[in-house]
Amino acid sequence: MDVKVIKQMFGSPTHVKTILLFYNGGSYFDNITGLTKALGKSHVTVRKVVSDLLKAGILKEVTVGRSRVIKINEDSPYTKALFEFLDKIKEIEEGKTEKDRIKTLIERRAAKQGESSKNANNRNNSIKIRDLKRWV
């Protein structure tokens, strides 16, 4: 494992804030000046953080007209792994485990199936929640 890449991604709180800005922003992009305003940091600090994240492959610089803008590098395997990691952290913070999500999906499907069987007056084919709990 290359510790250098990890340091480039998580070198300071500003690195983490920058990553989260792009993670939460979807297809967010901005120039360095816009990032300094969004992060509330100096131009020099943001330039250093962006430089680190460019080297790590998390961000990429794109020319739009005469401006250079920074955006997430969606093609990078590091970005994919980082975003999967952040997704998992978000799930944990929200208190949703994989088992809870599966259980919720099964319950929703069972409820929908229960509604359709009520409408068809066919209760024999409906799935009961108590039957599903043993599968989870």
Keywords, please?
elongated, 2 domains, 136 residues, mainly alpha, 7 helices, Arc Repressor Mutant, subunit A
Number of domains: 2
Mean residue pLDDT: 78
**Strand order of the biggest β-sheet:** 1-3-2
Query: How is the main sheet built?
Result: 3 strands, antiparallel
N-to-C CA distance: 36 Å
What is the CATH architecture term of the largest domain?
A: Orthogonal Bundle
* SS content category: mainly alpha
The string of secondary-structure elements, in order, is: HHEHHEEHHH
Strand fraction band? 5-15%
CATH topology (fold) name of the largest domain: Arc Repressor Mutant, subunit A
Shape: elongated
CATH hierarchy, class of the largest domain: Mainly Alpha
Total beta-strand segments: 3
Model regions low in confidence, pLDDT < 50 over at least 5 residues: 121-125, 132-136
CATH homology superfamily name of the largest domain: Winged helix-like DNA-binding domain superfamily/Winged helix DNA-binding domain
What portion of residues is helical? Answer: 55-70%
**Measured on Cα atoms, how large is the radius of gyration?**
23 Å
